[in-house]
Amino acid sequence: MSKQKRFFLSEEEIPTQWYNIQADMPNKPMPMLDPKTKKPMTPEDMFPLFSMEASRQEMDQEHAWIDIPEAVREQYKYYRSTPLVRAYGLEKALGTPAHIYFKNESVSPIGSHKLNSALAQAYYCKQEGVTNITTETGAGQWGCALSYAAKVFGLEAAVYQVKISYEQKPYRRAIMQSYGAQVTPSPSMSTRAGKDVLTVDPNNNGSLGTAISEAVELAMTTPNCKYVLGSVMNHVSLHQTIIGLEAEKQMEMAGEYPDIVIGCFGGGSNFAGISFPFMRHVFSGERKTRFIAAEPASCPKLTRGQFQYDFGDLSGLTPLMPMYTLGHNFMPANIHAGGLRYHGAGVIISQLLKDGYMEAMDLKQSETFKAGLLFAKEEGIIPAPESCHAIAAAIAEAEKCKETGEEKVILFNLSGHGLIDMAAYTQYLAGNLFDHEVSDEEVTRNVKELEQIIK
Amino acid sequence: MSKQKRFFLSEEEIPTQWYNIQADMPNKPMPMLDPKTKKPMTPEDMFPLFSMEASRQEMDQEHAWIDIPEAVREQYKYYRSTPLVRAYGLEKALGTPAHIYFKNESVSPIGSHKLNSALAQAYYCKQEGVTNITTETGAGQWGCALSYAAKVFGLEAAVYQVKISYEQKPYRRAIMQSYGAQVTPSPSMSTRAGKDVLTVDPNNNGSLGTAISEAVELAMTTPNCKYVLGSVMNHVSLHQTIIGLEAEKQMEMAGEYPDIVIGCFGGGSNFAGISFPFMRHVFSGERKTRFIAAEPASCPKLTRGQFQYDFGDLSGLTPLMPMYTLGHNFMPANIHAGGLRYHGAGVIISQLLKDGYMEAMDLKQSETFKAGLLFAKEEGIIPAPESCHAIAAAIAEAEKCKETGEEKVILFNLSGHGLIDMAAYTQYLAGNLFDHEVSDEEVTRNVKELEQIIK
Hints:
The first copy, chain A, is an alpha/beta fold.
């Protein structure tokens, strides 16, 4: 490991506003549609499910800057600014002329960027008199963040965790329980959606789609209970822009500006967080930055999916969203990067990809762990399997610079650490980790069905 | 969770010297003895095993302040200063008038305080032309720190991990391997000590004592290879004083001074680190601070052991040390706080306890996890099982303040986070965690044998 260089902001320099990219987008995202009427949704249509403030933020295409509530900013100060690090060790190991920087979101108390939005959403719920919040989680990064945020603002949290994760990965479950959350394996007998699945298949292992349906149902049928979501939605991306806004100031401290900005990609929250603030200078014509979303080859919605209206969950309880998707029935392989196993992309990202403001790169699981281990050796931090995708993409770009001799500045987001994912590394180190191919038939099958939905 | 208040030092304020308490102790520690000749050891006697600089520091009773090498301080800056936190949430939950502070060593890249000494020892080895270092580890905190430090300074690391931990807790092993260390389950066939054990008992699960014997043997029989140790030794305590020296400055920023300083206790490294700098003001008569070492009731060397010359390892390869001990044959119950499962205390601590400068408190495993969970809920950090002992002791003292109404200032060291120990929490939350009683017969049996050793 070579000497690292780290950049921090003082408390006063931590941003006081989030950046709402919708206001500046040349082409606004198409509207979400009510699943029953197929008419465009209004913020009011979302009030029964989400907090009012989150609902308003979701559809706000006017205000480019939105104030971070003081109580949320106070909580941010507990772990922010997160460090911007010049990865000298990685550069040297690669022998690249590129300058590689990463934003280290793994230093948050729950180990990932997810807390940035969990705190905001929990705060708004509390302000609006909500007493209970509910969500779904797969491997558990988001569930941990939400459990922590609920505790901070004095709310009760109920988390539906995909049953196979609940059983096979008990550690994040234990973290959620340590923060006082009630964690239920999904499918469960506590909801109609869960019962329906279990009636047909008593041993069903669960899926994110089912867990979302259960959480949504609980929120809709419980007084003073709201649903909160950890990715995909516009207001979640908004809250995550704190990452890129800090990085912008920190890059200035380093005296550089990124040519390429990279984030791993599941529903879009951390990619949006690191990218959107830099993208506004591309809209304005000031800069020509490239933005790369790094997704798993086994869940290739951006590189091989179609732009189409689709549901966010399995049962079709969510609004219809215009998104790059593999179809809400697509069942991704059980890769270790659980946070990237989602069939669709958020509506803003989908529009930006369509309009050519960003690119996507797909990466094989083995390639990402190889990259993650090199990063661990050179930079001392064991990355989350999700973050390994961003690292692998950054390495691919740095290798290109080596060929061309270009001294490009590459910035990627280290969305979280992998300390709860050591089982995955153990498997990789033992040579027991395989790649998952997705056939063209799988990619197109589910999307074809979609075409019927909005007719 | 209430608002936390955190105190940081600027880079310039990070201490430039460690504090060597030996120079100021009213009664110096008794000498270590050569296991063969029973004569006092000199630094030169230790050169074959340890780096020369560590050997000199081990016996230095003259210099109260020892410079931190610039290269080590540069590495410290990567994660130091660690935060000093006022635990308002915990205070509120307890309803105590006490002011509770903790020093958060869990923010280091490997998640515990162990790195403070690993970096120093690896650096000295590198400076002295050593190419390979070896050590033992139980659960793996120290092994991870050493693997990381070896990578930083370009050394090869070989770690003997107690076999039952190697098999049952593969995650810290994977972390060590991620940093490039060679990890061998102990007992192994790679050493005489290991072979001897396996010949008698092919299915032997290993112990810290056996693993130490193996690492020592490897160092003694390999060119350019030194042994490094993570606790017990004086030079390790010396390197850890960075914790207390920072805390002293940070408490000043908070405008308070601790009445009570607490650390959990295995071999002594983190307790020494937080305590020794404050203790010098007690020696000088300026202050009347109390110091409490929190040990597991199942390994009660300080509260129930005897002051006696004993070996540091099972096979008797180490020097004889004057220590509070349960006997080097004592086999502690398999509690989750693996870092506290050691039969003896370092020689400085033993002298200080004998002289009444510090106290010890023993805690049941269930009590420590209960305390750890309250802490996690109120302060947002899941503590290592070892650190839970310090938290439980701090809570016990804060509860006393509640009874008496005293507004005491309590400072404890949070030696590490528990993210790799979630299996233990899972067990506790499921009600499957039991306490281990130690009989008087067990406590005295092994120590009686010791009386023969130095005759």
